Q: What sequence folds into this?
């Protein structure tokens, strides 16, 4: 799965990566979601929360 969202522990670091060979197909949705997150702190892109970089963070 791609990684899309704000990087935990960094105030102004966002990533949109890991789409592999489907990157050109997913790029529009990823960029739309990232722009929403950066500007408003939330997004309406369905399922983007599953791609949050925080999923790799240990508790």
A:
């Amino acid at each position: 799965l791609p990684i899309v969202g704000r990087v935990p522990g960094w105030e102004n670091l966002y990533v949109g990566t890991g789409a592999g060979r489907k990157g050109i197909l997913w790029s529009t949705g990823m960029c739309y979601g990232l722009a929403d997150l950066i500007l408003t702190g939330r997004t309406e892109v369905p399922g983007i929360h599953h791609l949050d970089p925080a999923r790799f963070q240990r508790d």
Observations:
- The chain has one domain: 3-56.
- The helical segments are 23-40.
- Residues 23-40 form the longest helix (18 residues).
